[in-house]
Every structure is written in structure tokens, then in C-alpha cells.
Amino acid sequence: MSRPSSWDEFFNRLRRDIEEMVREAFEASASAVESLAGPYRTPRADVAVADGFVYLIAEMPGCDKNKIELTVEGSNITIEGEYMKPQHEVMSRLYPFKVGKGFRRTIQLPREVDSSRVEAKYESGLLMVKAAVAAPRGVKVSVE
Predict the structure, then answer these.
(1) Can you tell me the distance from the alpha carbon of 85 to that of 87, in angstroms, rounded to the nearest whole number?
(2) CA distance 107 to 56
(3) At 56, is the secondary structure helix, strand, or coil?
(4) What does the DSSP assignment read for 67-126?
(5) Tens of pLDDT along the chain (144 residues)?
(6) Where does residue 8 fall: left (phi above 0), alpha (psi -120 to 50 degrees), or beta otherwise?
(7) Which of 134, 137, 138 is closest to 118 using CA atoms?
(8) What does residue 142 show for φ and ψ, rounded to 5 degrees?
(9) How far apart are CA 93 and CA 83, in angstroms?
(10) Is residue 64 within 8 Å of residue 80, measured between CB atoms?
(11) Is 61 helix (H, G, I), strand (E, B) or coil?
(12) Backbone conformation region of residue 83, classed left if phi is above 0, alpha if psi is from -120 to 50, else beta
């Protein structure tokens, strides 16, 4: 009867060892891929134009709401955000964003926007931006 339990013990230990090796290999490859991306990740973003506004939604999970910056120049918008720091040191081992500073991306919008009429909101890892389309330049006006 002792043999089956020793075999069970052997296979259980073998399974744990293999699981540990796979986990270590996965973590090593994930951090290597992140380091190739540089200090910033590029957030996914979608843009739409409707009713005189340009709408932008960017995925920026793990960002600190107070550390997000938007820069609008003509038809370009640059978004940058830093990752939040884990609240407890123990959580840093579980934190998914171990490498890098955060997100950064410059997006060419389909229309030039009025930089004085831009609204932004960050909620549940999504940055939502609404910007008014700028008035066309060089429009001829008839004088009476």
C-alpha cells in the first residue's frame, strides 16, 4: 500500500515542479516583451466625429487619474498617463504593470479641434475625450 502513495506523492511533486517552471518561463517572457516596448505602452484608441465634435476613447487601465495629461495641437492629441502605485508593498508582486511608466500616444484626429473646448473623463480604465471641431480657417465672409 505504500507504493501507490509514494507514486501519488511523486506525480504531485512533478506536477507542482512543472507548473512552477511554466509560471517562471511565462513571467520571464512577459517582462522581456514589456521591456522591448520601452518605458511607455501605446493605448488602444477609437475616434469618431459626430455633430461637430470629435470623440476619442483610449484604453488606459491601471493609470492614476491625477497623472493623465492631454495636449491638443491642431488635429493632434497626445495622451500620457502614469501607472498607479500599488497601495501595499505585498501587492507589487501581483501588480500587472511591473515594467514601464504608463501610457503615451499621439493620435492624428480626422479634424482640427478647438483646444479651448475639450472635455476629458477617466473612468474604469477608459479615457473619454470630447473636443469641438474647430471653425474652418480662411472662410470668406461677404460684407454688406
Answers:
(1) 6
(2) 9
(3) strand
(4) EEEEEEETTEEEEEEEEPPPSSGGGGGT-S--SSSEEEEEEE-SS-EEEEEEEEEEETTE
(5) 445 578 888 888 989 999 888 888 776 665 555 555 567 888 899 999 999 999 999 999 888 889 999 999 989 999 999 887 777 777 666 666 555 678 899 999 988 999 899 999 999 999 999 999 987 766 566 676
(6) alpha
(7) 134
(8) -80, 140
(9) 15
(10) no
(11) coil
(12) beta
Identity of the amino acid at 94: L
Which amino acid is located at 81 in the chain? G
In terms of phi and psi (left: phi > 0; alpha: psi -120 to 50; beta: otherwise), the region of 51 is left
Pairing between strand 40-41 and 102-108? parallel
Residue owning grid cell 522581456: 32
Which cell numbers in the block locate residue 134?
474647430
Task: Quote the DSSP letter at residue 134.
Answer: P
